[in-house]
Automatic annotation (TrEMBL), chains A, B, C, D:
The gene is argC. Residues 2-141 form the Semialdehyde dehydrogenase NAD-binding domain. It comes from Sediminibacillus albus. It catalyses: N-acetyl-L-glutamate 5-semialdehyde + phosphate + NADP(+) = N-acetyl-L-glutamyl 5-phosphate + NADPH + H(+). This is N-acetyl-gamma-glutamyl-phosphate reductase. Its EC number is 1.2.1.38. Catalyzes the NADPH-dependent reduction of N-acetyl-5-glutamyl phosphate to yield N-acetyl-L-glutamate 5-semialdehyde. It is found in: Cytoplasm. Pathway: Amino-acid biosynthesis; L-arginine biosynthesis; N(2)-acetyl-L-ornithine from L-glutamate: step 3/4. The lineage of its organism: Bacteria, Bacillati, Bacillota, Bacilli, Bacillales. The active site is at C149.
Length: 345, 345, 345, 345
């Protein structure tokens, strides 16, 4: 199957290219870059020297629709909502790594994204691609809204607990920490090496765009409105997200029981690994891979359950999950082209 | 004033030596090291080459009590409880950087430290040296229990809110993150560079020894029993602690009002800096210094107040605060020998 | 083909397992660990949870020789010289990642390794597995001495220049820099995170065991005795080696000419990438991959040629090259199971 | 003494402010920033919150000359050559941290800096402020050209060997490595955190502007023309420079003899620390301090002497040495306001 990547020079795209390069059933037909068309990818990313040598292209939807069956958008906010409809009209499947189609309510989108949402019909059409949870919906989707990095880690950690009625949906606090690659490749003082090295920063407390995305998904599980307290931090490392999640247990439950419930919930989903009692996952343990590892501590003193969820933000939090969704969409084994060990150390 | 440092080769001691080296009113008379006595400090720490050249000594309490007026303990758990009484009997003031004298209840100590507590008379005698809060008590102390690193950051962030009755004392969640120097100089797989670099680890959820220390101090403010949910994480950096604290506001309060209340509370205490609305402190902004910086976000959506507190774990979280306490004890200006800008970048 | 790994819990082994896990023609039949036999690998390395679940075994040569066709040694110095003969006697091929069989002269081995060398017949038997240079010899080997990490980077950078008679063999200076994983998984003060982070250390100037290995290979090319000045440095990163090499050009030569000569030399060897004029390789550009990237600057002012050679020390500098040698040995495409893009960022 | 800093928002300035803040004999009267005048420094650098609160000013030479006795230039290339003459005309002493006045030959300046040099009379007037070497000249200077970071580390490492006629001046190779703060505060893809973290980069081989500065100083010592091979590398750390220097010994000399010669040479210069035989300095051992530490290895096998020189690039390589020069200029103890222990870890 031939595919195209639009927005070819960001970190999302380059990680997509890494996985597609070895995917047995797909071929990258075109890499589209508005800003650097005509150049070769290896002049932008020297690590692909000799390996990915076709020039970056400008976008021509009509032409591209003839050449490929599926398009990945790894574009900044506001681009895919304009371009995806053109592809969909030609029955080209679209997987969007940006936030343009994740929120069902255009009002909520406008409140949090400070811009106008995609047309409602596309918001309705889009399937939220949290692969382990919406597996069946993804299989039949035309347009997939690939989840955000923080929501992926947070939702995979929380949904089973809500689904089992184990915790109070009104009590959710998510303390999320991310490596700096999550901020993308655009330079800023904030991500300038001497400002970020040997430093730990909190940012956008209670104001991150991923909040409505998390709440939307959790409300479905809880069956009612809820709000989450959500904080984000930048950690001096390149890759990795950890969400440390605090919820009130509805009744006393042991760490062991929680682990059993989660193990059962994720049975048949190899990319979520429920870790043993006493083990807490570290971000390095999923580095470069599509795994989401979950650890638990149920505190009898406070009645709170703490859930630790880690992913590689560029893989399970972006491009790996996009490939997993492509696999589902095509009826392939979900782990096709993703079945690698994490890189350690 | 002549002082001695016992436990002279850990990170706490070496940071103490850094500040005492330039302190105008003190002189380091002796550095005691059980494991490396006879050696020169610069063979253990080459960065002091040519600067601190006296040999490390073995401990002789009687002799040392003749030579110094004050002793700092920068020893592992369980040492100072044995040694401090000998100095106190000779009216030598003691500042203990370990946890031996921090908890008033010997039962609580045993529950969390898995060892027997110091004698009750010394637990009673010890003043908890959180300098900004117990300023007056410290001035008259004989034995100071210098606070732990996590408690210092957490308590300075929480006490004003409890003191003002602004938040529900039963709702406290502290998500704490530390640089790796907090684990000390003893090697372990956990702190081996390739295991810790480009990694983020959660550890000891709900089980850290600093929990009872935090609860003990907060209960005094709240006037009742309370439990805190407390999680700790290792961040790939050497220095710095950030406590991100979540509490339920008792009634609606704006970030601005919180800032005003904290500014008033810490008036006259230059080492606590209440940051402006919209600013969140980063650990690097207090690097190498004795400051504790506080930032706030009061979320009207969730009714929760988030407090971000940062310190340098080796300074305000250990040796800097010990020097500040020594200053208070002697009636000197609290900032004597500590009045430096943070090192940035 | 079934293979075994002896010394299964070091970084060399775990990286070998990463590549073999996806290798199309091999299966890991046994992982041998003296120190942790009986345990599962994922209790030592949690990142393989659910993926590599067989218990670590103790070594029984007779039994193992029945089960496998090839053995990798990822053992500390001095082990393989004792064990490999037993396997060789049973016609099991051996690839040794340690230094035991790299030096042809047992006297030189003793001078640099401070221990007795393997028996001379095995030193004679061993083929030095620098894959691009000794391709044919490796294909027919029984025992492969897989090169050291520094020698791999240094020799791939130097051999073409010597081979072409471009530079003075007596003028070689190699300034080598390594990530900390090169020091292995054993803890030490030197590799303790707070000692190594935000630090750069020179070590073992002129005394590293890799010196005779480099000289032995270069003398073959130069056709005469030579000595290299070789320095090593630890850089605060986990993976990557850079050798910056200084040699005197025999006659004036442009950077462009050097690049042409190297490009021709490495034609047909995809893992060595000769970078374009004006480009210097960075270690991250080969991260996690089996590439060796080379950059050049021929300085007309000084008459010196500077060669910059980068590898991932754990891949091309150890386990990746071992797999490449296994491929050659079996007549498979050299890039089998190694054909991945570097991980960036 | 009142001083002004021009170019107040770069890393050079902020480090100057750190030292001047505690300097006993000086007061910062004005901080000039073209780009951010009117703002407070703590809105640019939050770590000085509550500490440095005067607004940044625009430059008015006439007015400023009334208020201060000395001006520091921490400006980008090409600024001080225009501004310093105005101050000098009013007999205000100038210390320039940029490269504008370092080269005596305007032709050499133009060749390497690609711009026109300062007027020859100012190039002649300027004293090259390598404090330990040109101590007497600095004491009487009106205009001081503060040395570059790489030249400081390299020259302090090399000059005694040349001065003693110990090594061949035509054989000098300097392999220099720097932390990222040396690239300044302006953002670039090169210094974007995810591009620089866990990475090691060579850059500007044989083309760095510091080459003519090094050669100019060495030629004076050698008494003849010479060229150095000089390479630069970016290391994933914020602070620190290491120059690993290779020279041919003129006759056999032991490491011990080298150390004795250097110790004698730097007698009375406390900021250069000659390390013991067998010890090699690491950059962290001078972190935040004005020390330059030197280590040696004389290799009898190759006849080469290797010199390892480390400094903190922002201190001895910039602002610390500027303060040291100010002290010399005023007849104060050279270590005034600089007499601190390095920060470790």
């Amino acid at each position: 199957m031939k595919v195209a990547i639009i927005g070819g020079t960001g970190y999302g795209a380059i990680e997509l290219i890494r996985f597609l390069y070895n995917h047995p059933y797909t071929e990258i037909e075109a890499i589209i870059s508005h800003s650097q068309s005509g150049e070769r990818l290896d002049s932008v990313y020297p690590h692909v020297t000799d390996l990915v040598i076709e020039p970056l292209e400008t976008l021509n939807i009509d032409q591209l629709a003839e050449r490929v069956e599926l398009v990945f958008f790894a574009t900044p906010p506001g681009i895919s909502k304009k371009l995806a409809p053109g592809f969909l009209a030609k029955r080209i499947k679209c997987i969007d790594l940006s936030g343009d189609f994740r929120l069902k309510s255009s009002q909520v989108y406008q409140d949090w994204y400070q811009g106008s949402a995609a047309e409602q019909q596309y918001l309705d059409l889009a399937v939220y691609g949290l692969s382990e949870i919406y597996t069946e919906e993804v299989k039949n989707a035309e347009l997939i809204a690939n989840p955000g990095c923080y929501p992926t880690a947070s939702l995979l950690g929380l949904i089973p607990a809500l689904n089992h009625g184990m915790v109070d949906p009104q009590s959710i606090i998510i303390d999320a920490k991310s490596g700096v690659s999550g901020a993308g490749r655009s330079t800023s003082l904030n991500t300038h090496y001497p400002e970020m090295n040997e430093n730990l920063k909190a940012y956008k407390l209670g104001q991150h765009k991923h909040i409505p995305e998390i709440e939307q998904a959790l409300q479905i599980e809880a069956g009612k409105e809820l709000k989450v307290a959500f904080s984000t931090h930048l950690v001096p490392m390149t890759r990795g997200i950890m969400s440390t999640i605090y919820v009130n247990a509805i009744e006393e439950i042991s760490t062991k029981e929680v682990i059993e419930a989660y193990t059962a919930f994720y049975d048949g989903h190899p990319f979520v690994r429920v870790r043993r009692e006493g083990e807490l996952p570290a971000t390095r343990e999923v580095y470069g891979s599509n795994f989401c590892d979950l650890g638990f501590y149920s505190d009898q003193r406070t009645g709170k359950l703490t859930i630790v969820s880690v992913i590689d933000n560029l893989v399970k939090g972006a491009s790996g999950q996009a490939v997993q969704n492509m696999n589902l969409l095509n009826g392939w084994e979900p782990s096709t082209g993703l079945n690698y060990l994490p890189i350690y150390p």
